[in-house]
């Protein structure tokens, strides 16, 4: 039977569930038959217990300690990538299922649509061949001749960028990727799969809204934020999203997947790790925020974007060896820049 969404996890606007998977747990006795179950309903008891646990840990650290984690954020992320290099966050099999905007058939479709509209807008065939590049100082920037541009912010060591380049062989595609950590960006650039003809990696602090991007405003088809916005101080989130929105073309989309409120990772934080409400510091000094759908909706709409999708993915992961169950909560969003009017 069709699942009825409790109010705390109903998709905003009532749109259909995306393809978060098809393995549903119908018999609780079968829980240890598989490693994970999709779209798991929470009981009221579970929800109440989660809220209680978060409230218990809601004693923020002293302000000077919070400031220290803020000013040393770059150092902590560099240390993280130095230690782990590329041995983490490997699982990206969901990427093209959830975000077809990154797949080749999507960008090729966009490209042919672009060519049709260009040819229709001018009778002069010669002129339609020469698409005027967007000017950035001298009008020349990496990927300036591309017909489909993707930027991943917070790219880490390239676990999203490289699958895109490998899967999407559209000749008009150009992928930009940036990270706060110069260690991470160096790991991307030294990866044998890095192709400077199709990709441009650069160091960038997302929270610094005054810093320039190496691409002009209004030039991107897709912006990707995967588990990155949650690493920012909550006060800096709105400015960062509004700045990114300017980079999108009219009709361009921002794709996000990030931690949801009451995710297992939030419930596991011990006392003394809370920086502010729903914002924590890990043992390695890196920080993480846990969102609600409404918070993200407000951030995107305040940046002038329109909702395409805003959904919660509740997944039950199972450690069959230890007979443990772990409840994950992620939020997935797609917001579009309105087509220019007139």
Topology, element by element:
Blueprint: E1 36-37, H1 44-56, H2 63-71, H3 73-84, H4 95-98, H5 104-121, H6 125-129, E2 148-153, H7 161-167, E3 173-179, H8 182-189, E4 199-203, E5 220-226, H9 234-247, E6 248-259, H10 264-267, E7 274-276, E8 279-281, E9 287-289, H11 293-302, E10 306-319, E11 324-336
Parallel strand pairs: 2-3, 2-5, 3-4, 5-6
Antiparallel strand pairs: 1-10, 6-11, 7-8, 8-9, 10-11
Give a summary of the structure in a few sentences.
By secondary structure, this protein is of the alpha/beta class. The chain has 11 helices and 11 strands. The chain has helices at 44-56, 63-71, 73-84, 95-98, 104-121, 125-129, 161-167, 182-189, 234-247, 264-267, 293-302; strands at 36-37, 148-153, 173-179, 199-203, 220-226, 248-259, 274-276, 279-281, 287-289, 306-319, 324-336.
How would you characterize this protein structure?
The protein has about 350 residues and is of the alpha/beta class. The protein has a single domain (about 30-105, about 140-335), classed as Rossmann fold (3-Layer(aba) Sandwich). Helix content is about 30%, strand content about 20%. It has 11 helices and 11 strands. The strands form 2 sheets. Strands 1-10-11-6-5-2-3-4 form an 8-stranded mixed β-sheet. Residues about 1-20, about 30-35 and about 115-135 have low confidence and may be disordered.
What are the defining features of this structure?
alpha/beta; Rossmann fold; three-stranded antiparallel β-sheet; 11 helices; globular
